[in-house]
Each structure stands twice: as C-alpha cells, then as structure tokens.
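Supplementary Methods. Inverse-folding protocol.

Structures were first reduced to a discrete structure-token string of length 297. This string, shown here, constituted the complete conditioning input.
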C-alpha cells in the first residue's frame, strides 16, 4: 500500500490543472460559447503567477495574478465574439497561439528561477501532505455541480446555452450571462496555469502547460458537459500522465518515448471513441454552442 500512495498522490496532482481548466470551459460551453483558447489562457496565467511569485509577491499573490491574467485574456475573447461577432473557433485558436507567444516572451527572464512550492497539510501519519490546490479543485467541482443543477442561476445559464433568443425574449441579459461564463472560464484556466507554475513544477519553462489546455477541451466533450464525468476523466488522464514517470518502477518494459506520448495518445483514442457516439453528443451538447448571437438577431 505504501508503494501505491505516492502514485495516488501524484495522480491527484496531475489531474488538478485539468479539473480547474475543464470545469471553467464546461461552464463557458454551457452558456453556448466555445472557447478554444484554454491552452493560451493557462500559459498566460502561469507566467503571470510565476513572475509575481518569484519577484517577491508570494504564492498567494502569484495565484491571484494568474487568475487575473486568465480573466483578462478571456475578456479579450469575450469582446471579440460577443460584441464584434467574431467566429468563436477562429478567435479561440488565435487566443491559444497568442498565449503561447506572449508567455514565451514574458517568461524569458524567469527561465532559471525556481520557487519553493506550496506546503501541504498532513492529516494522517504515513499519508502524503494534502495540497491546498487539490482540495480547491474538489471544492470547485462541488460548487459547479451545485450551481448548474441546484441553483436558479445555473438553470438560467443552461437556458442561455440552449436557446439565447428565447432567454432574451424572457428578459434575461444573455450577453451579460455569457460574459460572466467566459470570465469564469478564463479565471479557472489562469488558476490551472498558476498551479502548474507555482506548485506542480514549480518553475517556468516555455510551453509549461504541455498541451493540458487541449486535453481539458477534450475532457469537456468526453464528459458530455457533466461535471462529475469530467472529474472522473481528469483523474483518468492524470493517471495516464503519471504512468510515464512510474512505468519503469512498476517494471513495464516500454520505451520512454512511448510512455511520454501516452496522455496525448489517450486523448486521441477517447475522441475517436466519442465520435462514434454522435447521438449522445448531440443530445447533451448545448444547442447554441459556437453559434454567433446578437440581441437584434
């Protein structure tokens, strides 16, 4: 059992950024907006958090800076797609590329810096310390689950995602609701990046997210827009990610290059399997997802 506890702990840690980013994107898509810029927002949040934390601001201020940077990036996306009526897919891809380039430019002076990381809390002797980010990811899941299915605000959000014209006719501020959902998604992506840069690594390297933003996007579809399934999927992908590090210790005679590509191979396999369930996707996906909408339309 003691041999498996470190693997369990590292699996939880590897799944945490996927949970943060995935839940944020899930809420955004539930409002009918498809933001493919998760990877870019994660990187912008990561470099902002690391810059503040390594400059003497501390881990708390660094985390808040990451959240704020993610929200700022998502606000730019919201302005373009909600007011300028830009194509959501093209704008999201542009945001992803912009985030990769901007984070690499800002992070040039922080490549050689290393942080101390976050100190966990020990609940029981023999168990690994409990990371506050991991606890926070579970708390965020509970909050999103309650909000979407137990609150009036969640019902309105899902109604906007299904039919913005009907929601607008009933007097709901559709554009304002979508603004809030997009900003929430940006905050979660920035938080995921802040966790990677200040706790999980904790250091800055170019492309720190290593495709986790794209995996989070795949998780939303894998979960058919349901938070509980997303949580399970994040832990599944976290376990696959950690397997590459523990494969040799477990006695798996597999080339290290194959182990490194496991998370991305798993993503491809999952998306391929999901594509065979077209009816389930159409049944659960928000009806207005990715569609341009204006109050006058």
């Amino acid at each position: 059992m003691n041999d498996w506890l470190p693997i369990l702990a590292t699996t939880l840690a590897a799944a945490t950024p996927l949970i943060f980013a995935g839940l944020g994107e899930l809420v955004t898509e539930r409002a009918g907006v498809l933001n493919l810029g998760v990877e870019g927002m994660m990187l912008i949040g990561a470099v902002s958090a690391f810059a503040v934390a390594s400059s003497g601001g501390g881990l708390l201020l660094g985390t808040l800076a990451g959240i704020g940077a993610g929200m700022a990036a998502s606000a730019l996306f919201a302005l373009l797609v909600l007011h300028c009526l830009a194509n959501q897919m093209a704008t999201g891809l542009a945001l992803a590329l912009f985030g990769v380039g901007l984070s690499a430019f800002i992070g040039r002076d922080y490549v050689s810096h290393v942080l101390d990381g976050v100190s966990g809390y020990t609940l029981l002797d023999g168990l690994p310390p409990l990371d506050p980010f991991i606890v926070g990811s579970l708390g965020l899941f509970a909050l999103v689950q309650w909000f979407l299915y137990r609150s009036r605000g969640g019902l309105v959000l899902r109604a906007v995602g299904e039919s913005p014209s009907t929601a607008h006719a009933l007097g709901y501020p559709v554009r304002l609701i979508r603004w809030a959902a997009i900003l929430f998604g940006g905050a979660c992506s920035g938080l995921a990046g802040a966790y990677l840069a200040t706790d999980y690594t904790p250091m800055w390297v170019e492309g720190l997210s290593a495709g986790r933003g794209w995996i989070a996007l795949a998780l939303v579809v894998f979960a058919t827009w349901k938070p509980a399934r997303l949580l399970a999927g994040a832990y599944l992908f976290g376990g696959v990610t950690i397997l590459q590090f523990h494969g040799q210790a477990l006695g798996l005679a597999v080339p290290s290059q194959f182990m490194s590509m496991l998370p991305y191979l798993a993503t491809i396999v999952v998306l391929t399997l999901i594509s065979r369930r077209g009816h389930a996707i159409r049944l659960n996906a928000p009806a207005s997802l990715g569609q341009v909408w204006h109050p006058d339309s």
